[in-house]
Amino acid sequence: MNWAARLIGGRFHYGWLTVAVVFLVLLAAAGTRATPSVMMVPLEHQFGWSRATISLAISVNIALYGLMGPFAAAAMQRFGVRPTLLIALGTMAAGVALSSLMTHPWQMILIWGVMVGGSTGVAALSLSATVVTRWFTTHRGLVMGILTASSATGQLVFLPMLAAIAEHYGWRQVVWVVAGAAAIVLPLVAFLLPERPADMQLRPFGEPANTPISTTVTKQNPLAIAFGTLAMASKRRDFWLLFFSFFICGASTNGYVGTHLIAMCGDYGMTEVQGASLLAAMGIFDLFGTTLSGWLSDRFNSRVLLFWYYGLRGLSLMYLPHAFGIDFFGLPLFAVFYGLDWIATVPPTVRLATDAFGKESAPVVFGWVVAGHQLGAAFAALGAGMLRASLGTYTVASMISGGLCLVAAMIVLRINRPAKVPEPQAA
């Protein structure tokens, strides 16, 4: 990596190049995670699998994606970011390619649920939190917003293209494209991603010049780090407030809209490409919304920001069933309103976790919070599929998801509140 540092010649801090590499990794992982939503209808038509069966594989994928977070963050502390990512990306590419051979539901659960779900869980929000806390002292909210927005950009880049490939050439060609994208980022990680600023003889961006360069590397077992941090954090109310609010966040984004929106559009006579294009449009707005959210979280109260984010998301989900009946402005209005708010919750949540638990513990604590996010997403992916299979419509699922968001809007106001100091009584 020293050759890369010499190439940029000190014109900008190497931390920004690290952000660019991680952005591309998260971009490929986001495209991989979005792929099952494109495959849902083709698999239903080719094999006769029900949406509840396909949703089960997706829910396993989403759950493992989240549960890997704290262990991935701990492994990055113990073994390093680069080797952990290289193993995960290799597993992801191999698993996606292998899925082109599947013909039975259990194979989809094993490959897309276990293999792909576990590997994408390494290239996730806990990776972003680790990179941000290691490489930046200032602008953390902004950088977290940029990295979080890569999920939206992944949908923007992949979904319409993948939907068109699935429509014209079949779902097997889709998995080869996604496997290739995962393989492309492997050499970037191998040659351009250092472990920490000290490896480049640098301080974190924004660190005072007189601060000693830290070279501390933990030798503790990753499982001990992950479970020890959980034991510490679970004794505090703030952790559970963060966990359950992010559970609802996952249920109302990846689990419901991210998994079922394309299929929902099909219920109203729209093609897969039109449904994917709607998700991509939401991704464009979320790219701006999440980046702006990171900038705002550096300047304003994160609790108040989260209150508005969850409240507005809840209202937009309650509006969604009615949007299909409005000729011109219905779905575009939902795409703008919901898209700006999709994952804008991440930067303020990371900020609150860092403020509550400290810089060193925050990535692993946030990994456990992300586990709650993905458990909520798995719950919604399976639950919405079952409701659709039994009721023939997604309306009830939309209302439940919107109502949960309104509950989360109230929960977040209690996170990391300063203790009230009693006023002295007059003599």
Automatic annotation (TrEMBL):
Keyword annotations: Membrane, Transmembrane, Transmembrane helix
Location of the Major facilitator superfamily (MFS) profile domain: 17-420
Domain of life: Bacteria
Keyword Ligase: no
TM spans (from-to): 12-32, 52-73, 85-103, 109-129, 141-162, 174-193, 239-263, 275-296, 365-387, 394-415
Listed name of the protein: L-lactate transporter
Biological classification of the source: Bacteria, Pseudomonadati, Pseudomonadota, Betaproteobacteria, Burkholderiales
